[in-house]
Amino acid sequence: MKALILTAVLAGCGAELGQNEPGVDAFRPGDAGGDANGTADGPVDARPCTGGDARAVDPTTGSCFVYFTGPLTYVEAAAQCTAMTSQLAVIKSAQTNATLETLIGLTDAFVGADDRTLEGTYRWLGSATDPVSGAYTNWRTGEPNNGGGGGVEEDCMIIEGDQGGTWDDRPCDQTQVSVAGRYAYICQYN
Q: Facing residues of 136 across strands?
């Protein structure tokens, strides 16, 4: 199918096409500046890393992270990410954490983990089996502490720009504390 499309494009540009051996395409990966995968500047279907108030590509995963100053509640932030065909950010390495820290500056931002299903068991959003306790975590000392016994539910994770990129649990919305529960947020897509 790709050969037919390329043939039609080349023919439409006035290019002459020679006879091919049966089953051999006129265009081969590596021709016309392409790489071994037949692409010139990356995968043909790659989505550009755009939008938000700041953005960065994680050099280890290739994921695009898009930062929004918000502020929104956790549910609103997750919905905004979904609306742009992405998800709240997942942090599974120090490199990814450093990438996000550069995006947020000194602000705090929601990322995609919470313990709303089972208190004390943080899981990455959208996964019932992916705990935030694997090979990499970056909780600030004493966190998560669910409000430190102060009667406030802190069920949603943020990355703290003013604390060197450490993680903290915070209220997911303003139902319990009017001055907390709305933060900047980071969406992620590949």
A: none
Report residue 165 CA to chain centroid gap: 16
**What does the pLDDT look like over 116-172, one tens digit per residue?**
988 999 999 866 566 787 779 999 999 999 998 888 999 999 999 999 999 999 999
82-112 b/e (C-beta count within 10 Å ≥ 16 → b): eeeebbbbbbbeeebbbbbbebbeebbbbbb
Retrieve residue 3's tokens: 């050969």
User: What are residue 159's phi and psi, to 5 degrees?
Assistant: -105, 135
Residues in the chain: 190
Residue 161 is given by DSSP the state G
- Segment (H or E) for 108: strand 108-114
Q: Give yes or no for a contact between 65 and 81, defined as CB atoms under 8 angstroms apart.
A: no
The tokens describing 161, both together, are 């720009």
Here the tokens at position 123 are 């899981």
Predicted TM-score (pTM) above 0.85: no
Phi, psi of 28, deg, nearest 5: -115, 150
- Closest alpha carbon to 173 in 68, 104, 75: 75
Determine the Cα–Cα distance for residues 70 and 106; give it in Å rounded to an integer: 14
